[in-house]
Amino acid sequence: MSAEISEKFDLKTLFHQYRRGSHKDYDLFLNILSDLQTKSEDLRVYLRTIKDNVTELSREFEDLVAVLLKLDWASRDVCVVREYQSLLLGLVCAHTYYLRASLRMLVKYFSPPIVKSDTEEVSDEIRQRQEAVFLNVHMVLKAILDSVPMSSTILMPLLHDLFPYIGKPVFVQECFVRNLLQITTYLPNGRQKILELITDRMLKLDVRAPRQNIQESEGDEEDMEEDIVFDIDIEQDLTRDLDNRDGSIYDKKCSDKPMTHREANILDVCMQLTLTYISNVCYSKGECDWEATKKLYREMLLVFDRLILPTHASCHVQFILFYLCSTKTPICEGFIDYLWKKVQNPNTESVFRQAAVGYIGSLLARAMFVPVSTVTACLDLMCQWVHLYLDSTSEDVVNADVNHHGPFYCVCQAIFYVFVFRSKEIFETKKGHKWAESLNFQRIVTSRLNPLRICLPVIVKTFSSITRMHQLAFCDTIIERNKRCILPVTSNGLGSSSVVTTLDSYFPFDPYLLNRSGRFIIPLYREYQGCIEEDQELSNDEDDFLPDESPSTVEPQSVSLGKTPTDFLHYGISPGFKHVQDIT
């Protein structure tokens, strides 16, 4: 049978007839190729015949190539799959003008044609069948990337263009991201761009899934009632406010349960895939692979610099860096040093300086893997910077001007925030109290720039309680005066003014709410726990204060940064990082 088919459809004869104007047999061959009922053995013979004549497939026979690229080959019998892979590789090697169309066809396989809605479980049978298809596609894609040098340049834009829309089912999104990560195993030079592509998509999901919306979707009626109670009682116990920031009224246990919030559910799946990938890269040998971890960190830091840091109000994607920092202490300290250089650089835009210090404060406060020695070193650096800033500030300054001194207030808020979270550990050290006295908090809080007026009230109040209890600073008089005064702040060069507001209460590493990916984060995450004395101070305080106005909100936006650092692991000579080993 095969011999008869091969003889009947001799391609050289068909091509010769086609060039002479006789298209009948040629068109019949195209119809047979595209017929889904064609038997696998017959199709294998056709593909072998075409492969033997692949050099003849010039642009004149684009319609034949188009039929080949539309074949549903990846799910056919093994004999057909192997023949097709060999044919496709020969085609793109012989005629590179078919390369883009061929790669496009392969990438489309990464988005399976699943019609099921997000609420329906995809069966194990479907998953196994799709895995077999993906394996067949990756085999030929790898061969093409190895054989055709220009293929990776063409592939990257296709991965971007064919990324499934956010409205596609979660299984489709999961498959595409999983296959993108699989590509990095045989295209290491393209890993940074692929990670950037995945991160960009996750950020789009992240800003569509605000923390409050997730909590409302995931919490049952009892949770919501408890939330209301916390809001009512918050002025009577400010510690509860910090606990509320920890999301203690919600179930934070790791779970495989899908998220109710649609975008959060897709984000959860993508974060789980990404964090699993990072774990496999960093711990491929059962223990931390330092060289692999360092390389991945550098790539992810570029992604952070270009995408994550400039994006306001993301809630979860930044935890990729949080998890990476947990792999090795030098990685964590390198990340802090990178952020601190941004804070110190006056040429960096103010909004990025403020965002960078927010990351420093949130990481130091929340990360279980950050030792108290690193915390004290960083607090030393930040307090020294604040004191130098106050030294350089004109004594004529009388207003709390957020527009002109935004980075200063953010550094102050980070200091207060970290000290509140880590004070218990600090005072448990042998010279903790003496060291805390050396920070000279009293000068900071009594300065003309009045950071207690600008920083988030709950942080100010808790910081005031702790410093009063340990006789480090006395903030109550200033807080009371701030309650009575409305301080003007110049908002433009024309002399107009507006009422000063608190800083944006955005802390990048606020509690992680996603279920499935949470298993990577929750064990590394610190929740706020005030000591008994502090709780008593807060509950007995007659000046409990939390203003009704909420911080001004900013629409999620992403803006491009300037030139990125060339070496993110090159440490400065700041005292807090002199003890770090050279890892470049």
TrEMBL record:
Coiled coil (residue ranges): none
Protein name, entry field: RNA polymerase I-specific transcription initiation factor RRN3
UniProt-annotated stretches for the region Disordered: 539-559
Pfam family, one: RRN3
Gene Ontology molecular functions: RNA polymerase I core binding; RNA polymerase I general transcription initiation factor activity
GO cellular component: nucleus
Family in the record: Belongs to the RRN3 family.
GO biological process: transcription initiation at RNA polymerase I promoter
PANTHER family in alphabetical order: RNA POLYMERASE I-SPECIFIC TRANSCRIPTION INITIATION FACTOR RRN3-RELATED, TRANSCRIPTION INITIATION FACTOR IA RRN3
Polar residues bias: start-end ranges: 550-559
Domain of life according to the entry: Eukaryota
